[in-house]
């Protein structure tokens, strides 16, 4: 058969997804693996689809119409046209020739095989149609029905969600001889529930597997680990097994061979016929989070760094490699995220208690998962005489004297400022290899500066005081969150000061109608300027309107102090506010519209007075208890520690990001030189190189375009994956819960970090530069690093998927008096934008009041 309209699965061209579709190419690969049985068949190719399906741009545009009715009618029109189309004689003849190879009376499976199907990042499982038991004279009709299924409502919606352009997708159709199955089912070579790569899961039903896929039959399930059945659940409590253990182990062994041949864990569909196993489909399991690559077989337990840094997005290769050089301990990498390996500390009785206690305080879901790993005995203790591994920063250290606090903090701040000035001068004028060497030298000593014992002592003094007061006042006064108000408006917090200072910028803009009109005009762009890499001309445009010069002067001052910050700021490859000030427009416009002049000073002063009043009331209530004078004296000391040292909590991160700002400014200039010399195609390619690779590009004057393109695609794929808090070296995602009972039905449970009860409309925000938040709305986000804190001045409450009691968002929320619940898993999916919610900031849960 020489036509490109219909090709046999053994034809080399069938290996091309662009011609045979994802499913067809997958089956073609399977037929080439030794000892793997795949039913014979052929593919009606995408060339055939393109020859008969006229896909006009206007009709495809209507599929993305915001009106569901318009989009639904467009999809229905497409389906009707394809189902009713007449096949050209050449195509019909090629199908008949292909069918003629099979014995009379053979029944066929006719299955969709789109070019976007069975990808490593999007499976499209169940989105298109398949038909079983089709007689030969009906194959052509069912080919048309498969084509039409490219435009089912669910397939169109899936493509929109995955960001796949309708114009780029074509449909092939696979036709295979049916297997007279005694039993059928699916096999996952990695456990779909836990992601453990060493555990396989088998599901089986009697007869054909369409009953399993459609949900009309309940399957018997097995889990197999390293050649042993470790779990079996019979369908509906039946004692009659569809398969015996030997057959299950045989299927798993076959799956492991296929997995090895295809290079990734697989989701397989199989049939048993007379004792022979046939594979009728294999696709990558797209939901698995990758495992960090290591060169040993030791046990590993990985903890997500992003969950502690409140930034779980994937990092650029350059940003991640610089972060790894910044860190004080080794950081492993998976899907663009950093992880630390705590297996040795967990295995050591001398280290595990402190490690788990630290995480129970900072993120109870991480602490609970680590405790679960210890409890089940997965980790062997270290040999006698082995050194005790570090468990993390020490807890319970003696805090510095309160009376020495201001001088000590001032000294630490001055040392950072001097170091930054020295670095700025050191990088000035350096280019090429000299510039990179100077940055590398600075990074080599940075960990020592960041983890100065005195700095750690100051930070922990306030954090442990917060922990003590939270526990003690809760126990003694019977009031959750009683200590939160004591942390309001502490002096010297650069992150909370940043949000208040932006109010002052709005004050400078408010009196000038032309400036306000410019903000309105830019805000109407709905964040397009702020969210792109194009030129940002806000500052120039401000200078060109009446009153704009004064507004720009104040904004320039704000950017000089805070402009090196921005969303995802631990990633050197992410843009900064100084580069894209238009990202601040929505916030400034909201401040101008909704806040009175001088609001920043009033809020800070009100918070300070509230904290003083709360301290007086708390101490009075403690003194009224038996032995109250001693308790009040201890509490007063802890309150003084908070008021003296908590402001410094945010400064080391601020100093680090300023340092990164100096690196980034120098590297952007270097990127322009590399583009001019032809070593890079665009300046943004810089961020797709690891630091050591950038050194090679500078030395050689060349970069590999294919590598850069692959890195760009990887970043997009990584963004679709949610990193686990804790996973093992086997890929198992270990989860815990908060273990709280007595909450309202349907409550979304998290960690209460800032007291107060607020009811308001939820505003789900994934990117702060695109936030459209009205005063009093509940800000619901995946995570919040310091760049989000200006939004806290508008929000009525905060809900995040990530966070702990002492992470940046929690500290600033308490300072602003913003009720907050963090660590609510899946909050941005479980809460719909615009729903009415009630946030219980002290008790740590959220009620969805409007489920319409």
Describe this structure as you would to a colleague.
The chain has 852 residues and is of the alpha+beta class. 44% of the residues lie in helices and 14% in strands. It has 30 helices and 23 strands. The chain has an eight-stranded mixed beta sheet with strand order 16-23-22-18-19-20-21-17. Helix 4 (68-83) packs antiparallel against helix 6 (139-148) and helix 18 (494-509) crosses helix 22. The longest helix has 26 residues, at 651-676.
Structural class call reads alpha+beta
Radius of gyration: 31 Å
Rounded to the nearest angstrom, the distance between the terminal CA atoms is: 57 Å
> What is the oligomer described by this structure?
single chain
The outline comes out as globular
- Note the total helix count: 30
Strand content bin: 5-15%
């Amino acid at each position: 058969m020489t036509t490109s309209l219909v090709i046999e699965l053994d034809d080399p061209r069938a290996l091309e997804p662009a011609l045979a579709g994802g499913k067809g190419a997958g089956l073609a690969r399977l037929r080439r693996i030794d000892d793997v049985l795949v039913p014979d068949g052929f593919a009606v190719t995408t060339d055939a689809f393109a020859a008969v399906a006229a896909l006009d741009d206007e009709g495809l545009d209507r599929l993305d119409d915001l009106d569901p009715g318009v989009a639904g009618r467009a999809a229905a029109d497409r389906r009707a046209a394809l189902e009713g189309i007449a096949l050209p004689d050449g195509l019909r003849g090629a199908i008949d020739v292909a069918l003629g190879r099979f014995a009379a009376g053979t029944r066929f499976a006719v299955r969709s095989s789109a070019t976007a199907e069975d990808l490593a990042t999007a499976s499209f499982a169940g989105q298109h149609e398949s038909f079983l038991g089709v007689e030969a004279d009906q194959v052509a009709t069912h080919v048309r029905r498969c084509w039409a299924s490219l435009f089912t409502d669910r397939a169109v919606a899936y493509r929109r969600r995955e960001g796949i352009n309708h114009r780029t997708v074509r449909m092939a159709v696979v036709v295979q001889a049916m297997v007279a199955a005694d039993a059928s089912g699916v096999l996952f070579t990695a456990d779909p529930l836990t992601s453990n790569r060493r555990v396989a899961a088998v599901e089986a039903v009697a007869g054909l597997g369409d009953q399993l896929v459609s949900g009309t039959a309940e399957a018997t399930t097995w889990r197999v680990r390293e050649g042993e059945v470790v779990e079996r659940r019979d369908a509906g409590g039946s004692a009659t097994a569809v398969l015996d253990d030997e057959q299950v182990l045989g299927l798993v062994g076959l799956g492991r061979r296929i997995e090895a041949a295809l290079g990734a864990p697989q989701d397989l569909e199989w049939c048993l016929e007379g004792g022979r196993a046939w594979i009728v489909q294999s696709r990558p399991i797209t939901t698995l989070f990758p495992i960090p690559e290591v060169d040993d077989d030791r046990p590993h337990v990985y903890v997500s760094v992003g969950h502690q840094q409140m930034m779980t997005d994937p990092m650029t290769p350059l940003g991640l490699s610089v972060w790894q050089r910044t860190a004080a301990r080794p950081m492993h990498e998976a899907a663009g995220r950093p992880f630390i390996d705590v297996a040795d500390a967990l295995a050591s009785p001398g280290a595990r208690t402190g490690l788990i206690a630290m995480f129970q305080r900072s993120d109870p879901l991480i602490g609970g998962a680590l405790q679960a790993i210890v409890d089940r005995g997965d980790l062997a203790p270290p040999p006698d005489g082995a050194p005790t591994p570090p468990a993390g920063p020490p807890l319970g250290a003696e805090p510095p004297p309160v009376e020495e606090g201001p001088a000590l903090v001032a000294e630490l701040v001055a040392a950072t400022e001097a170091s930054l000035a020295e670095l700025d001068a050191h990088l000035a004028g350096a280019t090429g290899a000299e510039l990179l060497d100077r940055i590398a030298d600075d990074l080599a000593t940075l960990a020592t500066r960041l983890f100065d014992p005195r700095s750690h002592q100051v930070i922990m003094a306030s954090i442990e005081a917060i922990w003590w007061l939270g526990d003690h006042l809760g126990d003694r006064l019977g009031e959750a969150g009683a200590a939160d108000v004591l942390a309001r408006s502490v002096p010297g917090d650069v992150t909370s000061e940043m949000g208040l200072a932006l109010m002052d910028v709005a004050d400078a803009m408010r009196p000038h109608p032309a400036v306000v009109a410019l903000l309105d005009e830019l805000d109407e762009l709905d964040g397009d300027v702020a969210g792109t890499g194009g030129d940002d001309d806000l500052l120039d445009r401000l200078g060109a309107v009446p009153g704009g010069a004064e507004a720009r002067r104040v904004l320039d001052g704000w950017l000089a102090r805070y402009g090196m910050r921005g969303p995802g700021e631990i990633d050197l490859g992410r843009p900064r506010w100084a580069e894209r000030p238009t990202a601040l427009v929505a916030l400034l416009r909201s401040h101008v519209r909704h806040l009175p002049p001088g609001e920043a000073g009033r809020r800070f002063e009100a918070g300070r007075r509230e904290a003083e009043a709360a301290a007086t009331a708390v101490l009075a209530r403690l003194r009224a208890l038996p032995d109250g004078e001693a308790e009040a004296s201890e509490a007063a000391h802890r309150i003084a520690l908070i008021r003296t040292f908590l402001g410094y909590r945010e400064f080391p991160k601020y100093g680090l990001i300023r340092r990164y700002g100096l690196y980034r400014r120098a590297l952007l200039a270097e990127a322009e030189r590399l583009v001019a010399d032809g070593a890079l195609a665009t300046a943004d390619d810089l961020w797709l190189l690891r630091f050591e690779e950038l050194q090679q590009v500078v030395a050689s004057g060349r970069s590999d375009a294919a590598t850069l393109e692959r890195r760009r695609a990887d970043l997009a794929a990584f963004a679709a994956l949610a990193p686990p808090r804790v996973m093992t070296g086997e890929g198992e995602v270990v989860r815990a819960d908060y273990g709280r009972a007595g909450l309202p039905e349907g409550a979304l449970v998290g960690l209460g970090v800032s007291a107060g009860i607020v009811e308001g409309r939820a505003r789900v925000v994934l990117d702060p530069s695109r936030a459209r938040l009205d005063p009093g709305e509940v800000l619901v986000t995946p995570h919040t690093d310091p760049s989000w804190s200006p939004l806290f001045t508008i929000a009525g409450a905060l809900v995040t998927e990530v966070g702990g009691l002492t992470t940046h968002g929690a500290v600033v929320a308490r300072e602003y008096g913003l009720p907050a619940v963090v660590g609510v898993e899946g909050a941005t999916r479980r809460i719909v934008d615009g729903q009415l919610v009630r946030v219980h900031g002290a008790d740590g849960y959220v009620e969805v009041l409007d489920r319409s």
